[in-house]
Amino acid sequence: MAPHDLRRPFKRAAISDQQRRRDLTLQRQVQSRRDAQQHARSLASTVISLHLQQNEPEPDIELEPVPESESDQQQELSGNFSKDLDVRHAARLRGPEVRKWFARQLMLPEWMIDVPDRLSQDWYVFARPAGTRCFVVSSNGTTVSRARNGTVLHRFPSALPNGAKTRDVYGPAQSYSILDCIFHESDQTYYVIDMVCWRGYSLYDCTSEFRFFWLNSKLGETGACDPPSSCHRYRFSTVPVYNCDQSGLCSAYSQAGPYFKDGLLFYNKHAHYQTGNTPLALVWKDEKCSQYVIDTDSKGQVPSQQQVVLELQDDGKLITSDDPPVIFGCLDSDFIHVSALLPGNLLRFAIGDGQMSFVDGKLERADLHYLGKSNRARAFADGYSKIMFQHFARHSPLKFDDLLGSICSSDDQQNKPCEVEMTG
After folding, report:
1. What are the φ/ψ torsions at residue 41 (nearest 5 degrees)?
2. pLDDT-based confidence at 40, cuts 50/70/90?
3. Burial (Cβ within 10 Å: 0-12, 13-18, ≥19) of residue 228
């Protein structure tokens, strides 16, 4: 039997701890609260005003600055920037640090290694649009979109609150909104997949269930979903979000839509908007709902061996971008010196015929072969879940039938099979 025909279980308890981390993440978000309003204000100000290029014009924005404390100054001088940098620090960053800052502000899904518990009760699912993930901020008569590496996609007038100087706005003059979007190039549309802040009201500490309700209730009221006009250059649109029962999963997977799909996104209904990687949002792909399931090289070809990007540490260890990171190997000091490598470098490796081995559910070793430094545009190393998803995609993929089979159906659903045309 060919490797890709092997049937795999829904759970890989000996390899994956995603469910344990999902439970811990839900517990932590109940136990710990942060100043979400200030975080949203800082993010909005940074997206609007951060200089990434010398010829980038300075917008007219009047978000209230925050006094800088002595501890902040000491942190800046020491070069130790925290995960939740605010605009005062981010405005001083350049190059890789800017890319890292912006990438950390988005909620980044893990890759689905195994099917979550209570998938049909506690999760939403929707088809992810193919395109550029970005933040869109409207404030003080302008709208700016920035990709996850910090570069400006567009600066434009919009029908979002305070998004254009030519439109009448209601609400406080200094209110701002932040949307988590994917820009779909072919139809020049921003598909909104999440709402972070609306008219100055932070939604960071609101559940996905509330954020999706608020998004669908508020976005259409502004006219932002109307066709483009002189004061509304790009169209915005929501994506259909389904309860992850059999019917919703089949709809997200098979129904045609206005955009090209790039896999399915699963959001836990109780999850807050958590910056950085989170196991409470998951991405899954197969060949029928995504053009790219297995990673390709710079020429768009699938390499014969799986490739991974890892970060080099001071002691030579090679780690993933997870918190805490997973150690995949270690480079000899002589090799590091000869290759002129530095701590923090992102390095590309191929996983050889030795593959990866596990002991008691933990990675013991990986057969790594050094290929060179990664593309400079990258902000982070690969996450453990992505590496494992790519590994399974080559050898024992988690299939759509596995997702359907894991759902606890209602009596009606058990008696009525889910008919789905596998057209992608």
Report:
1. -60, -45
2. low
3. middle
How far the first Cα of the chain sits from its last, in Å, is 26
Alpha helices in 93-245 (DSSP H): 96-105, 119-122, 208-218
pLDDT top residue among 278 and 85: 278
Distance CA 234, CA 358 (A): 49
Contact 13, 19 (CB under 8 A): no
Instruction: Please report, for residues 117, 220, 262, 363, 421, the alpha-carbon distance to residue 245 in angstroms, rounded to integers and kept in the order given.
Output: 13, 27, 20, 33, 17
Q: Is 43 exposed, middle or buried (0-12, 13-18, 19+ CB in 10 A)?
A: buried
Query: Residue 105: which residues within 8 A CB-CB, separation 6 or more?
Result: 43, 135, 275
Structure tokens at 54: 């010398």
Tokens 């993010």 correspond to 43
Amino acid in position 383:
G
Label the pairing between strands 276-284 and 107-111. parallel
Q: Cα(209)–Cα(242) distance, rounded to whole angstroms?
A: 11
CB–CB of 396/6 below 8 Å? yes
Mean pLDDT value of segment 54-74: 37
Residue 403 in contact with residue 131, Cβ under 8 Å? no
Task: Write down the pTM of the prediction.
Answer: 0.80
Beta bridge partners of 310: 347
Q: CA–CA separation, 357 vs 27, rounded Å?
A: 31
Q: How far apart are CA 243 and CA 123, in angstroms?
A: 6
Residues in the chain: 424
Query: pLDDT of 145-157, one tens digit each?
Result: 988 877 889 999 9
* pLDDT confidence of residue 72: 39
Smallest Cα–Cα separation from 363: which of 322, 420, 411, 313?
322
Strand 327-330 to 317-319 pairing: antiparallel
Q: Which of 120-124, 248-252, 398-402, 417-421 has the lowest mean pLDDT?
A: 417-421
Pairing of strands 242-243, 132-139: unpaired
By the 10 Å C-beta count (0-12 exposed, 13-18 middle, 19+ buried), 170 is classed as exposed
